[in-house]
């Protein structure tokens, strides 16, 4: 495609700070950052190499996209407040967390995940490299690439606020003390005290949810005195057989309660299940302070969830769109 043919296209390139750039914010100079890392016994050369490779990938991507339309570069920390245009095409240059963190702020705009360094990042959400953009972008502009819908999780609070999650939502306390709340699923409700609730999408089921289920399986096997050693290979096999079958676009989510504590005033029977558009989870906070709902493991992307507030949690009212 010629530049004229794609002149009306607008590409938003989302990038992030590398580890080296984050160190420079803290220590001001490369020399001071190098001294800090090497004093800890770590390899500063790896920080330097990662930064060089990433910056090169971003520069190449921008150069390629400029041949096919207008380009705007957006830092990760500004995504939340950025107003994306209806016709924008968004390119997030890895890792996976950057793709997830961008997807939840889009509304029908297609998102392309680019892996800047395949030797470093697994890239579940990064099917493309910078070298693929030359042929990929014309196909996207012509509508010839498959779009994978992705169901998001949404927490809607009765004060009008809402929060989206691409991988998962967490409901609990900022601190490590127990969270207190009432949980309701259909007609069944109970008071609970726990380490919090995780609500996972099908896309995120191989992450936090997987680790919680692996821990629960180990506890059960220990309690029954039947040795069970879960290796990474075992978990990979389980994921391929069960979690790997989940449809990212399915209108359903999974929830699990972490470390529920049964007592005279609290119960632990609603601890795991599936929710959907008709069968939603309702949680009423009993936490005077530090109650939060945060998404995708990012603690600074949160809503306050203090006593008296009620959250209704289910699939979001919109889906993400990944180019695959």
Automatic annotation (TrEMBL):
Gene Ontology biological process: NAD+ metabolic process
Keywords: ATP-binding, Kinase, Nucleotide-binding, Transferase
Protein name: Sugar kinase
Organism: Paenibacillus sp. BIHB 4019
Taxonomic lineage of the native organism: Bacteria, Bacillati, Bacillota, Bacilli, Bacillales
A single GO molecular function term of this UniProt record: NAD+ kinase activity
UniProt-listed InterPro entries: ATP-NAD_kinase_N (IPR017438), ATP-NAD_kinase_PpnK-typ_C (IPR017437), NAD/diacylglycerol_kinase_sf (IPR016064)
The keyword Transport appears for this protein: no
Statement: the UniProt record of this protein carries the keyword Nucleotide-binding: yes
């Amino acid at each position: 495609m010629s530049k004229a043919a794609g002149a009306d296209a607008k590409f938003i390139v989302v990038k992030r700070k590398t580890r080296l750039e984050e160190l420079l914010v803290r220590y001001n100079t490369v020399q001071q950052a190098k001294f800090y890392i090497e004093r800890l016994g770590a390899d500063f050369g790896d920080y330097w190499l990662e930064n060089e490779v990433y910056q090169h990938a971003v520069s190449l991507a921008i150069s390629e996209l400029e041949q096919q339309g207008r380009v705007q570069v957006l830092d990760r920390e500004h995504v939340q407040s950025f107003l994306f245009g209806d016709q924008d095409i968004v390119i997030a240059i890895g890792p996976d967390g950057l793709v997830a963190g961008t997807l939840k702020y889009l509304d029908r705009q297609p998102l392309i995940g680019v892996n800047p360094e395949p030797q470093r990042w697994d890239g579940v959400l990064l099917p493309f490299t910078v070298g693929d953009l030359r042929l990929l972008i014309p196909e996207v502009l012509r509508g010839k690439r498959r779009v994978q819908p992705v169901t998001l999780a949404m927490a809607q609070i009765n004060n009008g606020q809402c929060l989206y999650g691409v991988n998962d939502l967490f409901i609990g306390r900022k601190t490590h003390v127990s969270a207190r709340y009432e949980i309701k699923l259909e007609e069944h409700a109970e008071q609970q005290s726990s380490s919090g609730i995780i609500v996972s999408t099908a896309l995120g089921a191989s992450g936090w949810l997987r680790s919680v289920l692996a821990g629960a399986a180990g506890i059960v096997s220990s309690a029954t005195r039947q040795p069970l050693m879960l290796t990474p290979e075992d978990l990979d096999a389980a994921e391929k057989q069960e979690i790997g079958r989940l449809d990212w676009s399915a209108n359903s989510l999974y929830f699990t309660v972490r470390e529920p504590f049964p007592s005279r005033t609290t119960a632990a029977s609603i601890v795991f299940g599936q929710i959907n558009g008709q069968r939603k989870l309702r949680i009423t906070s009993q936490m005077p302070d530090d109650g939060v709902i945060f998404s995708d493991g990012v603690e600074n992307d949160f809503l306050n969830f203090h006593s008296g507030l009620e959250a209704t949690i289910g699939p979001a009212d919109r889906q993400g769109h990944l180019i695959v």
